[in-house]
Write a structure and sequence with these properties.
alpha+beta; Helix Hairpins; 2 domains; 8-stranded mixed β-sheet; 3-stranded mixed β-sheet; elongated; RNA-binding
RNA sequence: GGAGAGAUGGCUGAGUGGUCUAAAGCAGCGGUUUGCUAAACCGUCGUAGUUCUAAUAGAGCUACCGAGAGUUCGAAUCUCUCUCUCUCCGCCA
């Protein structure tokens, strides 16, 4: 949702900023419907004011013992007229709001201008790929050979784009969850949060997944419950319709959840392995920040996410997304990409975004400022996607004999230094 | 799943058809006075939309008392549906 005043007072520059991210705003249509809607509203409100006054008069006359039958008859007709005008006014309002809902967030001035992912700018690169004197395998071969990953049985139990983990593979997933939660809570100052994994429509609207992206979600039949696509939804909506004290900012929360995505529209992409699944696990960082500090908080959040890769000694690079490649509600986004030797490429493992007041305005999240209550800024980023981290470890730490060395920081969690073949079912 | 009771502003809480333009208290904010870790008194204090005024302020109007629909000239108040909370019963990890 947008700041209406900004659109009205600076329509030209706003349209230019939107154009930089590939969205063309029809300025004439905007002005026309805005004026039409306000005219209709003014007329209805004028009639309502009139009715309120006359109704009061009816009450007064009745009290004085006068006959008000004629007056009431006349006012019934007035009521019908109001209902009629109100319906058309509401129709215009819905039209106007629908148009606003379809407009993406304004990019921050520091975001590089670009059309697509080729316009993204690398801001950091850390770590070096391990030297391997053999051809590195992709995780879908390594994992299956090790007996820790099974796609065929998952397809039988559920369908495509699902996976089953066995033995040390399952434990590696659990170890990563604990390692990430421990690091973010103990070292980065986030509060651990365990939210519901099902969310309602209001929450999805608040963070921007609805109404535009319903086809990306799974819905529970006969209910208003949806499987959460990311912990961003339940966690950000924890403060929906609330006003919190400014001195509590920034509020920093970290949550582990499974995430469910229909992946409509990505048929044929990343079909092999566990890079793109209908269900994946993720540790998510969420911040509620004061508008003056939100960009510094974004840098901090990105650093917190990168720190997981530093500790795991996995090579990565951080990209500032350009205007044309950012998500719908984001004002600025850093993607963290981890190196995958099995695929000889970098792969996104975290996306850290500042939404400015875009989500806060939709969800009604405010803080008590010095003069009046204001919308705060919401931020979030993966810290990290568990499945893709699992992939990165398996591929980067693979040995010539097909086993996988466990990164030092994970050894206490896994209670092992090596992942070896789990032969029970495979 | 069954029975019952509830939902009012940041919080507590009054209000069962017409000055509700929502009482009062607490907390917050501004001020006055007195002065030892404070008290008393005065003022202020919701959100959104919209109109006007030379206007990052003020004055008005409209809507909002869990949500939606209805009855009525007029609804926080009456009716219906739904959601949530609490109590008891049933079931259950």
């Amino acid at each position: 949702m947008h700041d209406l005043q900004l659109f009205r007072s600076q329509l030209d520059s706003t349209a230019e900023r939107l154009a930089s991210r590939g969205f063309s705003l029809d300025k004439n249509a905007f002005r026309a419907i805005d004026v039409k809607r306000r005219d209709a509203l003014t007329e209805v409100e004028r009639l309502k004011a009139d009715r309120n006054e006359r109704s009061k008069d009816v009450g007064a006359r009745k009290k004085a013992g006068e006959d008000t039958t004629d007056l009431q008859t006349a006012m019934r007709a007035m009521g019908d007229r109001i209902a009629e005008l109100e319906a058309s006014s509401e129709q215009l309002d819905v039209e106007f709001r629908d148009m606003l809902k379809g407009i993406p967030n304004l990019p921050h001035e520091s975001v590089p201008i670009g059309k697509d992912e080729h316009g993204n700018v690398e801001v950091r690169r850390e770590g070096a790929a391990a030297t391997m004197n053999f051809a590195p395998k992709p995780h879908w071969d390594l994992g299956v050979d090790l007996g820790i990953l099974d796609f065929e049985r998952a397809a039988k139990v559920t369908g495509s784009r699902f996976a089953v983990y066995f033995g040390q593979g399952a434990k590696l997933e659990r170890a990563l969850v604990n390692f990430m939660l421990d690091t973010h809570t103990a070292e980065h100052g986030y509060m651990e949060t365990l939210p519901p994994f099902l969310v309602n429509s209001d929450s999805l609207y608040g963070t921007g997944q609805l109404p535009k992206f319903a086809e990306d979600l799974f819905k529970c039949e006969g209910t208003d419950y949806w499987l959460t696509p990311t912990a961003e939804v339940p966690v950000t909506n924890l403060l929906r319709d609330e006003t919190i004290d400014a001195e509590k900012l920034p509020v920093k929360l970290v949550a582990y959840t499974p995430c469910f995505r229909s992946e409509a529209g990505s048929h044929g992409r990343d079909v092999r392995g566990i890079i793109r699944q209908h269900q994946f696990q993720k540790v998510e960082l969420v911040k509620f920040a004061h508008p003056e500090h939100s960009y510094a908080e974004l840098d901090g959040l990105t650093h917190d996410a990168e720190n997981i890769l530093r500790k795991l000694e996995l090579p990565f690079r951080t990209m500032a997304l350009c205007t044309g490649d950012m998500g719908f509600g984001s004002a600025k986004t850093f993607d963290i990409e981890v190196w995958l030797p099995g695929q000889n490429s970098f792969k996104e493992i975290s996306s850290c975004s500042n939404y400015d007041a875009f989500q806060a305005r939709r969800a009604g999240i405010r803080f008590r400022g010095t003069k009046k209550n204001e919308f705060l800024h919401t931020l979030n980023g993966s810290g990290l996607a568990i499945g893709r981290t699992w992939v990165a470890i398996v591929e980067n730490y693979q040995q010539a004999d097909g086993s996988v060395t466990v990164p030092k920081v994970l050894q206490p969690y896994l209670n092992a230094e090596q992942i070896t073949r789990q032969g029970l079912l495979t």
